[in-house]
Amino acid sequence: MCGIVAYMGPKNGVPVVLDGLRKLEYRGYDSAGIAILEQGKIAIHRSVGKLIGLEEKIREQQLHGTPVIGHTRWATHGRPTEANAHPHKHEGVVVVHNGIIENYLELRRELIGLGHIFSSETDTEVLSHLIVRALQSGADFEQAVSQSLLRVRGTYALAVLYEKAPEKMIVARQSSPLVMALGENVGEYFVASDIPALLAWSKDVIFLDDGEMAVFDDQGMKVVGLDDGAQHEKEVRRISWDPIMAEKSGYKHFMLKEIFEQPDAVSNTLLGRLNEDRSGVDLTEIGFSQEQWHSFKEIKIIACGTSWHAGLVAKYWLENLARIPAEVDIASEFRYRDPLVGPDTLVIGISQSGETADTLAALQEARRRGATLLAICNVMESSIARLCDGVLYTHAGPEIGVASTKAFTTQLTALFLLSLEIATIRESLTSAEVGEYVQELLHLPVAIEKVLARAADLELMARRYHLVDDYLYLARGLNFPIALEGALKLKEISYIHAEGYPAGEMKHGPIALIDESMPVVVLAPPDRHLEKIVSNFQEVAARDGRLLIFSGPDLEISAEIDKLDHFIVDVVGEELNPLLYVVPLQLLAYYTAVLKGTDVDQPRNLAKSVTVE
Ligand code: AGP
Fold it and tell me: For residue 403, how far is its CA from the centre of ligand 1 (angstroms)?
């Protein structure tokens, strides 16, 4: 995700900010830039690609100045180009921004109507134009920033400079982190998206809170509420992390950090994709016409690994909600099977990296056969995103851990939105039904947070079973792919053999495996399959199996079943159980791997992106 670094003080801000941006490189980005105030003018320097490219570009210029603001961009709106790189400057106002401005299109249209001309495709650029507009209406710099931000819907962490207020630097945040540090010199301030960028200068930090704006000038620093301008007193916190821990925000592994980022990642994937009153879906960004949507008679989903599991869940949604036939294929099988696809097939490629060789090749095969391609992807302008006719990006931010977690739940979020969109177009759901599903989706991050708050219970569960050799995961219906996903998570990071199975298949073989040495994970949410799944886990108990049951709060389990762990999760809409029930399984796998002492973020033999066959 994007990174911001800003400096004001007696030092030359250029090396300070570049060093801070370097410390944020782990967050992933595709372009970089800085803005320097020097002799009353603000110069901006930007480049596509890595920070080293920007440094090469400015090396000869011996740049010197303060304040300086810098940015590494993880493209969400607008391709990774120099024109889209931050900072964005308009008539002396310069902005760097991390987040998503949900209503940027309507603001952009309004400003264009007032004669503004934009030089980028980004949502961020509307901020510099809004601030200029407020300044032209007589507001001072602080008022212009706060008035502009009060018109914005979405998320932001931002830093702003203004040529006509060279003594000031303003930062603000809403649902996107921003941390500040006081330098050892009077009037010296450091600001960054994350702690690693500040540790070289100070361990005493101040966290800006949502709806707050900080103003730095030669009078010092003040923090005010964006809504009422009231001054806020802020606590200085001492950070004890070392730089490596800081990159993981204090988590022991990137995987754990990314598991805990899922509520935000799901919320961010919803941003800008619901209509004004949040009663329906708006996926116009995909760019298909109504005629195109109506031309699709069937859907084929192609993916690998965890992304394939997301596709398996999507099949249920597309058929149950959108009433369109949907088949799911493993990419490495699809590409060699003379597949039946043609002009009336929508082929969806799901890929976190957007670079998986099998998925890319399978999509190229589908293209050759005349299908329309749609990518569900986490990396902007990746090969698969560029190949497809339309793209629906997940906004998970970079996923560093090899085992996919937040990418999976955001893939499911995007696929559920897509199912609702197609259901709306095909009128297989009423707008009231779509509205109910949207409300359930909006509640999901809260339900995930509640599971995360009980991570310790899953660590205890992992402690009881981390020495076993085999696991079996059982579920039914649209939760069966979550049994597969839970098993994959466990085996790929803890190296314990694990299988996911449709619970109804027990009697056709796996039941022969049941004994007290093999934990059997059973997903038993309160849905249409509950009665059957209860019989399944009673069959396991009758054969001395060791049950790990994940259910809603009302499941009654007979007292005779004594070899049992029971983890309860919230009740959410039945269709959304996959997004919720996968989270405790991710944590179970994570804590098991930690107890086994494996390399959780970089498991043996695995790569984050399998770009070879
Ligand atoms: C999942 O935890 C694995 N890392 C792996 O199965 C992964 O999902 C698969 O390689 C597909 O990757 P992609 O989503 O980047 O295409």
Answer: 7
Alpha carbon nearest to ligand 1 atom 16, residue: 351
In this prediction, residue 172 carries a pLDDT of: 97
CB atoms within 10 A of CB 476: 22
Question: pTM of the entire structure?
Answer: 0.81
> In Å, how far from its chain's centre is CA 294?
30
Ligand 1 atom with least separation from CA of 404: 2
State how far the Cα of 491 lies from the Cα of 489, in Å rounded to an integer: 6
What's the token pair of residue 444? 């999901």
Q: Is the CB of 388 under 6 A from ligand 1?
A: no
**Residue 607: its pLDDT value, please?**
79
Pure H helices in 60-207: 104-113, 125-136, 141-149
The alpha carbon of 321 and the centre of ligand 1 are apart by a number of angstroms equal to 27
Residue with tokens 């996959």: 578
Residue 54 CA to ligand 1 center (angstroms) comes to 31
Instruction: State pLDDT tens for residues 538-572.
Output: 999 999 999 999 999 999 898 888 889 999 999 99
Q: Give the pLDDT confidence score for residue 239 in this predicted structure.
A: 79
In this prediction, what percent of the chain has a pLDDT beyond 70? 99
Is pLDDT above 90 for 579?
yes
Catalytic annotation, residues: 2, 608
Query: How many angstroms separate the alpha carbon of residue 65 from the centre of ligand 1?
Result: 45
Ligand 1 pocket, mutate which of 610, 612, 613 (most atoms under 8 A from CB): 610
